[in-house]
């Protein structure tokens, strides 16, 4: 049994992580400022209200905790918003991460799993993006995450911090039977917005651009189920037991689906039409992002269980269909 501090555990991926670790017998403590998370999502383990931008609150959270490791999910993560509010992204994602790392050092916590993103790569120059792909983010969100990755590498050299960075491609899906799923006050992710459109919960879906150099003109993304992401984080804990230094892995299914394919699959799963309209491209959106996760498979032993788009969307559909009140709130 390990004692794990989950920063951002009231959010989408963090709440699924809490469930996974609790289910495996670990002791979980969630740290969150509830700015975008939801208190109702903290259903496994203890809760500490704290903020990465408040070092005193971090000291109080870590004092006497004797945590074996930290999982860091706290971040601003909206690509478009990062373009218009870059200071907020560098403050939260870079300065906040530094505050957390300094607090960990003060309280002798030497291991961290860091939530990163495919946005660190920018526009791809290969069909499958592996860890050696050039890193040239095209938006402040990706740049802030890449800076945090660099800090972790420097911390490994200077302080002996052990870290695993996991770069998600597109997290999706839910655990409807556990009552947790993806719900944000300001929802920008495609699958939940497609499902909301199918439910008639809001305006017609906007498809941002249909003139990309892809088979049907819409953006192509690699969708990975949130439960598979949780599994990868748990494997990262074991990996750090034997592996010093800073390590990074890409997490995706290795296949891409276009916006139009997601819409068609959601309509089939839900049995409802998905109204949509084409809008101009958004700043900072690459045409295609598809992962190579060969390194994670080889070194972490990670094997995604959710490999088809239909079941991923079906799990999210059940969440949105059966949790209509919560899906209008932040989680």
Automatic annotation (TrEMBL):
GO terms of biological process kind: galactose catabolic process via UDP-galactose, Leloir pathway
Catalytic activity: UDP-alpha-D-glucose = UDP-alpha-D-galactose
Gene3D superfamilies recorded: NAD(P)-binding Rossmann-like Domain, UDP-galactose 4-epimerase, domain 1
GO molecular function: UDP-glucose 4-epimerase activity
Annotated protein name in UniProt: UDP-glucose 4-epimerase
UniProt family annotation: Belongs to the NAD(P)-dependent epimerase/dehydratase family.
Subunit field text: Homodimer.
Pathway info: Carbohydrate metabolism; galactose metabolism
Cofactor: NAD(+)
Higher taxonomy: Bacteria, Pseudomonadati, Pseudomonadota, Gammaproteobacteria, Lysobacterales
Species assigned in the record: Stenotrophomonas chelatiphaga
NCBIfam families reported in the protein's UniProt record: galE
TM ranges: none
């Amino acid at each position: 049994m390990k004692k794990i501090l989950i920063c951002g555990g009231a959010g989408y991926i963090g709440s699924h992580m809490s469930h996974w670790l609790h289910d495996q017998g670990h002791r979980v403590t969630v740290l969150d400022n509830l700015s975008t998370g939801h208190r109702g999502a903290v259903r496994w383990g203890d809760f500490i209200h704290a903020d990465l931008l408040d070092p005193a609150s971090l000291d109080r959270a870590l004092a006497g905790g004797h945590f074996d490791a930290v999982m860091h999910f706290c971040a601003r993560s909206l690509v478009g918003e990062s373009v218009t509010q870059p200071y907020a992204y560098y403050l939260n994602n870079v300065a906040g991460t530094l505050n957390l790392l300094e607090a960990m050092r003060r309280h002798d916590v030497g291991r961290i799993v860091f939530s990163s993103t495919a946005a660190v790569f920018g526009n791809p120059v290969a069909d499958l993006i592996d860890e050696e792909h050039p890193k040239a983010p095209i938006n402040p969100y990706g740049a802030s995450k890449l800076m945090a990755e660099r800090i972790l590498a420097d911390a490994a050299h200077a302080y002996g911090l052990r870290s695993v960075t996991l770069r998600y491609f597109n997290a999706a899906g839910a655990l409807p039977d556990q009552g947790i799923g993806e719900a944000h006050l300001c929802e920008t992710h495609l699958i939940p917005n497609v499902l909301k459109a199918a439910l008639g919960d809001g305006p017609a879906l906007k498809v941002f651009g249909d003139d990309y150099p892809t088979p049907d003109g819409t953006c192509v993304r690699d969708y990975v189920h949130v439960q598979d992401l949780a599994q990868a984080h748990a494997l990262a804990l074991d990996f750090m037991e034997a592996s010093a230094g800073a390590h990074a892995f890409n997490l995706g299914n290795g296949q891409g689906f276009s916006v139009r394919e997601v819409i068609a699959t959601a309509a089939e799963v839900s049995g409802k039409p998905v109204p949509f309209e084409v809008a101009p491209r958004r700043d900072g959106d690459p045409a295609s992002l598809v992962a190579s996760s060969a390194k994670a498979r080889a070194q972490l032993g990670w094997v995604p269980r959710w490999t088809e788009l239909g079941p991923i969307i079906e799990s999210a559909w059940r969440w949105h269909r059966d949790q209509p009140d919560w899906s209008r709130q932040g989680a």
